Amino acid sequence: MTEDRNPGNRKHIAGVEIFVPHRLLAAGMCLVDTPGLGSIFTASTEATQSFLPHLDAALVVLGVDPPISADELELVAAAAGQVEDLVVVFNKADRPSDAERTEARAFTERVLAERLGRPAGRILDVSATERLAAAGPARDWYALCHALETLTARSGASMVRAAEARGLRLLAGRLLGELDERRGALLRPMQDSVARIETLRRSVAAAERALGDLHYQLAGEQERLARGLNERLQSFLEKAIPHARHAFACALEPSRGRRGAALREDAVQRAQAIARTAFDRWRIEEGPAAEARYRETSRRFVDAANGFLVRVWSAAGLSAAQIPGVLGEETGFRVAGDLRYTELMYLTSPPPLARPLLLLLTRRQEFALVSRCTADYLERLIFTNAHRVTNALIAQALESRRRLEADIDRQMHEVVGCAERALAEARAHQSRGRAAVEAELQRLESLSAAAARLSPPDGP
User: Against a cut of 0.85, is the pTM above it?
Assistant: First the structure.
């Protein structure tokens, strides 16, 4: 299970289940510990993001120092879109001062409210270390226990039932569609089924041509979105870099008395902290705006695609009541951003030939040189990573649009594939005579009744 013994999940471990007799789990609730975000191990981040659609409630554990990162904010926003119950916890609350905790909480509450469009609720302070050692103040530990127990008692069983019902409805709907198609192929004349499949193919081909024309319009929208992102990036850099240089000069002032490697290391660490703050602020500000623009550009495409899908299903002879659900509005990017923050460490060390010359400098000269070189490094950090944010958002929008188009294409061809499978089955049974056809019809009727019973009713 560990990265050192299974790097990149080469052993293809989907998950590890641990069973514990505990009252919190008695109603059927499962606690899923997902890998962390922002790790150098990209498989961990991908595993966490891929699990989001399966959530029924979310317990988000953050650190106080540093407070919520851009990766964590995106995860919380994605989780909040899936669940009603969201509990946010600050762990390691024993490490920072009261003032630092207060500042971190205010910052986290503000960015969460801005990102979610609503307050995220009270953030609970806990220290797992103190609780394991049974030492120190309880903080919000008992409030956390109460929140989990209330969630389990009130929602545990209903969440499990709701998750089961969603899966069963989806499965039953697909089974019934396949069974209806096979029954129809047996009952109608063979030539009608052949003609029907040809009609479906023509409908799909016409829809694909129309969507192809619309694709170019969407590509133009994509270009405008990319231009807008780059224009806002330039505006951001024009303000952020001078501000960061000034902040760095003030932050480095207490280190005037240091020399050599100690001075350079301190300067680099301060520059990295300032750059990371600017990077997170830019990503937090720009990510939701980019998703909103993607939703707007995809709306027209989704509306047109739904019209084409309805025509394809109508060509299949489905009534309005039988037509499967059409595509819903795009709520955001369909893929996670592949963003790796870089610290450009190769820029932090002076060239080997220059190191002896540094010994000849006075303290003031060395401080001025290190300050100037590290400020340039800070600017490069902000410039590089801000561009990475913008490029990642552009790539997210592009890949999300591609997946949307592939989803539409799959749905259209699925109707044709279902009809072709049904026709092949019908031919095989009819070749064996009327008794075989009657037996298959009875079997299909029995299976349809079983599938209908499988699907739970809508509603609470």
Answer: no
